[in-house]
């Protein structure tokens, strides 16, 4: 029977850099290479794709993280054992999120890692989804903690989109989306106190316009 699996591109934003969750594969093929969190669909346990997705996230201690399906990919070449199909998901974790398996790798380190199967392609697909969708939605907010400042929100978008934002225009757009709630608390430090917000809507909300870098 063709193999049917889920592969998860799990990202977090920590210390102003995107990190990817990987684990070492302990068996052939591609033994000792790095691989994405994955799960083979079990028809006796997984009543549907959502059940399989939740089972995979629970196994990695990521049950509370945001996730969405990116694409379905299947062919004879991706697995040397024969035809296989995978459903690729993007998962966004908070900065302090841990994992019960694997370890986090800065994206800049990926060229030096030996990755299993077609996982470089799957990672590229997940990153492309994040970057494209960040131009017209609130998706990057799921990479922040439970509470955050507007400056931290803007910086998350800038890191993902790799371009500076006009602060006034950016904040106007975020407020128009109406997805943040003032917690009544402030973050203090070297800078002046900044209001702490939390995400009101757990879903991904679309903006009324596409962001265009510094003009956003």
TrEMBL record:
CDD domains: NUDIX_NadM_like. InterPro entries: NUDIX_hydrolase-like_dom_sf, WH-like_DNA-bd_sf, WH_DNA-bd_sf, WHD_NrtR. SUPFAM superfamilies: Nudix, Winged helix' DNA-binding domain. Residues 141-199 form the NrtR DNA-binding winged helix domain. It holds the Pfam family WHD_NrtR. This is DNA mismatch repair protein MutT.
């Amino acid at each position: 029977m063709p193999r049917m699996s889920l592969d998860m591109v799990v990202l977090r934003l920590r210390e102003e850099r995107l990190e990817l969750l990987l684990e070492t594969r302990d068996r052939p093929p591609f033994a000792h290479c790095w691989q994405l969190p994955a799960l083979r669909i079990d028809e006796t346990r997984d009543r549907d794709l959502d059940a399989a997705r939740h089972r995979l996230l629970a196994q990695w201690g990521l049950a509370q993280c945001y996730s969405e399906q990116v694409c379905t990919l299947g062919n004879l070449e991706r697995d040397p054992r024969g035809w296989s199909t995978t459903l690729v998901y993007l998962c966004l974790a908070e900065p302090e999120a841990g994992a019960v398996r694997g370890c986090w790798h800065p994206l800049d380190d990926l060229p030096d890692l030996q990755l299993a199967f077609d996982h470089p392609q799957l990672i590229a697909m997940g990153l492309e989804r994040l970057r494209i969708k960040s131009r017209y939605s609130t998706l990057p907010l799921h990479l922040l903690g439970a509470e955050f400042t507007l400056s931290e929100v803007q910086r998350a978008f800038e890191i993902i989109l790799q371009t500076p934002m006009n602060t006034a225009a950016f904040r106007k757009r975020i407020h128009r989306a109406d997805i943040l709630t003032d917690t009544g608390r402030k973050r203090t430090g070297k800078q002046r106190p900044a209001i702490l917000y939390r995400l009101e809507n757990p879903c991904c909300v679309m903006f009324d316009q596409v962001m265009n870098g510094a003009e956003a």
